[in-house]
Amino acid sequence: MSPLKKKKLSKIRSELDKLDNLFIKLIKKRTFLVKKVLSLKEKKNQIVDQKRIKTILKNIRKKSLKNNIDPKITNIIWKNMISAYIDFERRNFKKK
Predict the structure, then answer these.
(1) Residue 31 has what pLDDT?
(2) Helix axes 71-92, 50-66, angle to 10 degrees
(3) What is the pTM assigned to this prediction?
(4) Among 17, 38, 73, 90, which one has the highest count of C-beta atoms within 10 angstroms of its own C-beta?
């Protein structure tokens, strides 16, 4: 790789690192909100809401297409995020 391309690559990676820092802040905020939702759930079987998941994924697909983003990318990201938060809720569920 040429020195010029290495410099460009480094700059792009720096921009990606900045975006990752923004994602961390958003994940922190999302986790706070998920904790609030979890505190309202009375039974462990309320953690997974298939209807809500289906609605979320449908809306993400629409928004992806509207913003000219490959919907397969966002679908995978959101499915993984939903799965991670379901796991989080199961680990943190407290019987009332």
Answers:
(1) 98
(2) 150
(3) 0.89
(4) 38
